[in-house]
């Protein structure tokens, strides 16, 4: 990370701490820092959310339009991702740096959501071969390897000790994101990896890769459950009481 200068002793301290499942800020290797999630923050979008995690601020907006299905996929809808890395966030996002990162994230998201287990595009079909919904998702997930261990949500200091980052996409539990009147209608759920991507000059052995993927799935399931329960509770409260909008773009 630019601007982070650590001595060899500091890097050894961080690396040994990660090895023993104890990070410098007290978290375990699969713990995230406290985060804030706000929904329905953009009035002109079909759906939106804002996530704040430490110094990271992400705004996601979803817009919809009716389109024509692809000839080879007449029963599926469409989904597109556009990522913008603000140059105001860090000097690393200036010029080509931000553009390359944005394209990389967009491609990873597109690959992740091509899996029907991550998102079933059949839900977006209106009239097979004729009409479908097209989702435009505007945005603005990672494991860092430190030594022989991996951590989620790395700090800037931890990233400076890492030679390779592993991005693991994990399918979410449908019971949190679908409206089922009867719980027996819920399909059997098992979290699965939907996409993997590595960045950085380092390498990962096959065993470390398997361990990292399993660790990513465990962390993602815990996060998915916490967010899912929060969103479910919000939907329930919204149905019972008229909530006043106060989002940061309203």
Structural overview:
With 250 residues, the chain is an alpha+beta fold. 28% of the residues lie in helices and 26% in strands. It has 4 helices and 10 strands. Strands 1, 2, 3, 4, 5 and 6 form a 6-stranded mixed β-sheet that branches. It has a 4-stranded antiparallel β-sheet with strand order 8-7-9-10. Strand 5 and strand 6 form a beta hairpin. The mean pLDDT is 79.
Helix content: 25-40%
Write down the Rg.
Answer: 20 Å
* Broad structural category: alpha+beta
Estimated share of beta-strand residues: 25-35%
How would a crystallographer describe the biggest sheet?
Answer: 6 strands, mixed
Secondary-structure element pattern, one letter each: HEEEEHEEEEHEEH
> Would you identify the regions where 5 or more consecutive residues have pLDDT less than 50?
none
Rough outline: globular
Average pLDDT taken over every residue: 79
Number of helices: 4
Q: Tally of extended strands?
A: 10
* N-C termini distance: 34 Å
């Amino acid at each position: 990370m630019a601007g982070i200068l650590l001595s060899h002793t500091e890097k050894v301290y961080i690396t040994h701490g990660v090895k023993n499942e104890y990070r410098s800020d007290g978290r375990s290797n699969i713990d995230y820092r406290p985060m804030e999630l706000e929904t329905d923050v953009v009035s002109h979008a079909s759906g939106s959310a804002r996530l704040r995690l430490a110094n990271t601020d992400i705004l996601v907006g979803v817009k919809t339009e009716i389109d024509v299905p692809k000839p080879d996929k007449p029963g599926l809808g469409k989904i597109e991702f556009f990522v913008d890395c603000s140059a105001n966030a860090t000097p690393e996002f200036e010029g080509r740096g931000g553009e390359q990162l944005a394209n990389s994230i967009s491609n990873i998201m597109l690959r992740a959501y091509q899996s029907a287990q991550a998102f079933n595009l059949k839900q977006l079909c209106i009239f097979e071969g004729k009409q479908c919904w097209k989702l435009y998702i505007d945005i603005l997930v990672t494991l860092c390897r430190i030594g022989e261990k991996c951590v989620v949500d790395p700090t800037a200091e931890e990233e400076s000790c890492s030679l390779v980052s592993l991005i693991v996409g994990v399918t979410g539990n449908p019971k949190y994101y679908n409206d089922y009147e009867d719980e027996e209608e819920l399909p059997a759920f098992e979290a699965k990896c939907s996409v993997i991507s590595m960045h950085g000059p380092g390498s990962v052995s096959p065993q470390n890769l398997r361990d990292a993927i399993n660790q990513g799935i465990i962390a993602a399931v815990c996060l998915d459950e916490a967010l899912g329960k929060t969103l479910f509770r919000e939907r329930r409260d919204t149905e019972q009481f008229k909530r006043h909008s106060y989002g940061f773009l309203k």
